[in-house]
Amino acid sequence: MLQVLPHRAEHVGSLLRSAALKAARAEHARGALSDAGLKEVEDREILRLIDRQHEAGMQTVTDGEVRRESWHVDFLTHLDGVEAIRPEAGYSFHGSVTNFAIPHVVGPLGFSGHPMLAHFAFLRQHARGMPKMTIPSPSALHFRFGRQVVAENVYPDMDAFYDDLAGAYAKAIAAFGEVGCRYLQLDEVYLAYLCDPAQREDLKTRGEDPETLPRTYAKLINRALAGAPDGMTIGMHLCRGNFRSTYVASGGYEPVAEMLFNEIGVDAYFMEFDTERAGGFEPLRFVPKGKTVVLGLVTTKVGQLEERSAILRRIEDAARFVPIEQLCLSPQCGFASTEDGNDLAEEAQWAKLRLVADIAAEVWG
Prior knowledge:
Elements: H1 19-29, H2 35-55, E1 60-61, H3 73-76, E2 80-85, E3 92-93, E4 96-97, E5 102-110, H4 115-126, E6 130-131, E7 133-136, H5 158-178, E8 183-187, H6 190-193, H7 197-205, H8 213-224, E9 233-238, H9 257-263, E10 268-272, E11 292-298, H10 308-318, E12 327-331, H11 346-364
Parallel strand pairs: 1-6, 7-8, 8-9, 9-10, 10-11, 11-12
Antiparallel strand pairs: 2-5, 3-4
């Protein structure tokens, strides 16, 4: 069967924000630039990024997530019942602390429209390749803070919270389908976090069960995917944190691998494999026929370009556990999970995407 999606050369989604865009967002924040003025700058930036993605050899095209402050907050806080609250202290990464707002559930969850529908429509209108929409997995509204950000007077029963969250996501996914989205990616970083013993201990201290939580999330995701129309390819991205070139978690995929690949109804997995923190390829032995793994072997955290021969060897190593026909190649994460961006120059970003495209052409033709 001819493979259509994912493409052999892929990327996760977010791209570095230009100096002009950052300046425009700062002006908008202090009231010196109107909403329309900011949108005009964002539109120009997205058109430029579309061209650069094509020039780098990418058939998959995103808007770089440049209209967002962060990969998850902007989506979640436009669901019904969710409010962004700026905390006194940020969320700690190894080497940095986040500065973005935290979504809080303050009312019944639902979906009655979303600005990102228009964002995708703009991308689809101008992309010459396959436009991909990226949104956070529904677990992003729970994992980091759990009950602390879910108002007990709204959801005294967490099962009802999960029910309504799945329903809101199903409606959102259906809405993206209605505006022409046929390639959707869920950014599901927390199943990877659940492979880290330290993260699991943190969950225990707040009263969560790290043994049962992976399947709770799997059921939540599957119920959300009920909204996907026929013909929509669903990818799932997994990583261990990506903020200003830092990370949160460590640990290979083994604790969740069998469930991940066989109990969650997605078509493809974008998997972080750029450092030893992600473990070896052995968990890929659980990948069934008909599913694809996109190997995230090129790092977005530093600008130094990987050696082609090293990437080729790692693809061969992965192919010992899953047929090479079920593999693709990408960077391990986006280049700018938040508007801050990772610590590398924009030209290094494009060099890495060109490397991915060149290696993919060499391996798969």
